[in-house]
Amino acid sequence: MTKRPCCTRCLRPQSHCLCADIPDLHSATELLVLQHPSEQHHALNTARLLCLGLDTAHLLVAEHVPDDWMAWLQDADYRTELLFPGPDAGELASTSDGRPRRLVLLDGTWRKARKLYYLNPVLHPLPQVALPAGPPSRYRLRKSPGAEALSTLEAGVRALGILEPAIDFTPLLRPFERLIDGQIAAMGTLTYQAHFAHRGAGKPGKP
Questions:
Q1: What DSSP string runs through 92-128?
Q2: For labelling alongside 148, which of 1, 102, 130, 206 has CA 20 to 30 A away?
């Protein structure tokens, strides 16, 4: 069977390209998304959509943070935090100490996100922050360990909304909504209802 040609930017089949829905936004906050390599070519790759739509977001596909990113994470001129709800995590807040903000997100299943954390000691000194309770995820196509689980894109949008409340980051959700609706349409209503409609779904932007 001939493989369908794909868009080189969003990596979706050209017939289902999402680029027209991807915004071009700027934030004062820099994001680094560390993505487990197994997620790179997943059909529901929301981390890539987040980074394509935000000019201050960086997508790093690796199990180990390479040396050239160590200085970025350790730069004391920035307030760099890890979106990771560990036992000592505080709630993400807009309060500032005067330094520009940087936020690190781990992209993968909960098990893979935890693995990324433990494989990278450079992440361990970073203050851990968690999102406050909010609306449930719109990520309706993946099983989730809890109703609070969000896709990486949703977690990024919600975090940016807290850090920079004067800016509307919801346009970043447009390609995400179209992606989910397209996947549901392709599988058919009966299949979707049988397997997903009554379950929480989501891939964590935070483990």
A1: P-----SSPEEEEEEES-HHHHHHHHHH-GGGTTSPE
A2: 102
Residues 53, 173: contact at Cβ < 8 Å? Answer: no
What sign has the CA pseudo-torsion 7, 140, 173, 187? positive
Mark residue 108 as left, alpha or beta (left: phi above 0; alpha: psi -120 to 50; beta: remaining).
Answer: left
Whole-number Å distance between alpha carbons of 70 and 206: 21
Can you list the domains of the chain with their CATH numbers? 19-195 (3.40.1280)
* Cα–Cα distance measured from residue 140 to residue 138, given in angstroms and rounded to the nearest whole number: 6
Does position 77 have pLDDT exceeding 80, yes or no? yes
Token duo for residue 71: 């200085």
Sheet bearing 57-61, strands edge to edge: 57-61, 30-35, 101-107, 79-83, 128-130, 90-91
| CA-CA-CA-CA dihedral for 56, 142, 144, 45, to nearest 10 | -20
pLDDT (tens digit per residue) in 99-132: 999 999 999 988 999 999 999 999 999 999 999 9
The string of pLDDT tens digits covering residues 83-102 is: 998 888 999 999 989 999 99
Which amino acid, residue 78?
Answer: Y
pLDDT given at position 192: 45
